């Protein structure tokens, strides 16, 4: 299967990959084209050029796409919208399905990959915290669900770093009646607010700062294999910063 993957939850990432199942039940990815830019305010300007280059590469142009995968956030409104609209346009014009994967899920899976490569822990729990601006983070707890997927253990919250551990502790599953434990903290929130790792009494893992175009393909394939529907509904969690002005009141 040939998949175009787009993530615009922080900067802009784009990849075209061929995928194939492996003997251990995971998915192998062959990267045909990949590009990214770090500017968090130039998604619309960069996506068109990145797409043109990626889809015109000889190894990509030789065969049509089978699907598009796009990050659904949570993330700031403008960047996330640019990626999802682009994915939708590509899906419609090429007649292929578009699947959505949360950016936080991709960060969690990358963090678990890094943890499993260096340490053996029994069913580790990852706290993902990504930058939500306004001195807040998007945060949730995750565990692995097989070699390519994750299970979200809590609802995604948007709050200050000081509130994260308290809110997560209220929602986290408990083992043996004790409080839930956190093994690693990942994401751009971990980079901006190191007190998160300290408060959670765990180590800091700087996995991708926000989302990952390749990892979200693995997650999408694992979920499609189970027959799940992958909504492209964006996870804004906040209203847009720019609001339409209210109608003027009449003076009597």
Question: What do these coordinates show?
Answer:
The chain has about 250 residues and is an alpha/beta fold. It has 2 domains: about 120 residues, ATPase, nucleotide binding domain (Nucleotidyltransferase, domain 5); about 100 residues, Nucleotidyltransferase, domain 5 (2-Layer Sandwich). It is about 35% helix and about 25% strand. The chain contains 8 helices and 11 strands. Strands 6, 7, 8, 9, 10 and 11 form a 6-stranded mixed beta sheet that branches. It has a 5-stranded mixed beta sheet with strand order 3-2-1-4-5, sandwiched between helices. About 5% of the residues have low confidence.
List the helices and strands and how they pair.
Layout (H helix, E strand, L loop, with lengths): L1 E6 L4 E10 L5 E11 L5 H14 L1 H4 L5 E5 L5 H18 L3 E4 L1 H16 L7 E8 L2 E10 L3 E4 L4 E3 L1 H11 L12 E3 L1 H5 L2 H5 L3 E3 L7 H13 L27
Parallel strand pairs: 1-4, 4-5, 6-10, 10-11
Antiparallel strand pairs: 1-2, 2-3, 6-7, 7-8, 7-9
By CATH, the topology of the largest domain is Nucleotidyltransferase, domain 5
CATH A-level architecture of the largest domain: 2-Layer Sandwich
Sheet having the most strands: 6 strands, mixed
Instruction: Please identify the structural class as seen in this structure.
Output: alpha/beta
Q: List the domain count as a whole number.
A: 2
Number of strand segments: 11
What share of the residues lie within helices?
25-40%
CATH superfamily of the largest domain: ATPase, nucleotide binding domain
């Amino acid at each position: 299967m040939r998949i175009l993957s787009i993530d615009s939850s922080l900067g802009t990432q784009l990849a075209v990959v061929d995928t194939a199942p492996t003997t251990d039940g995971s998915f192998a990815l062959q990267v045909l084209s990949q590009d990214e830019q770090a500017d968090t305010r130039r998604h619309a300007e960069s996506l068109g050029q990145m797409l043109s280059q990626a889809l015109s590469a000889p190894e990509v142009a030789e065969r049509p796409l089978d699907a598009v995968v796009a990050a659904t956030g949570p993330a700031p409104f403008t960047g996330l919208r640019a990626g999802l609209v682009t994915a939708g346009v590509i899906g419609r014009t090429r007649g292929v399905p578009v699947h959505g994967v949360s950016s936080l899920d991709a960060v969690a899976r990358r963090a678990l990959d890094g943890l499993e490569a260096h340490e053996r822990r029994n069913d580790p729990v990852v706290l993902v915290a990504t930058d939500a601006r306004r001195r807040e983070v998007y945060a949730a707890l995750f565990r692995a669900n097989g070699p390519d997927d994750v299970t979200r253990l809590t609802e995604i919250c948007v709050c200050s770093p000081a509130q994260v551990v308290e809110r997560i502790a209220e929602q986290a599953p408990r083992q043996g009646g004790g409080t839930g434990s956190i093994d690693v903290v990942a994401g751009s929130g971990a980079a901006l607010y190191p007190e998160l790792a300290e408060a959670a009494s765990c180590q800091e893992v700087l996995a991708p700062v926000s989302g990952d175009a390749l990892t979200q393909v693995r997650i999408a394939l694992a979920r499609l294999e189970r027959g799940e529907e992958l909504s492209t509904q964006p996870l804004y969690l906040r209203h847009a910063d720019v609001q339409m002005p209210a109608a003027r009141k009449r003076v009597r």
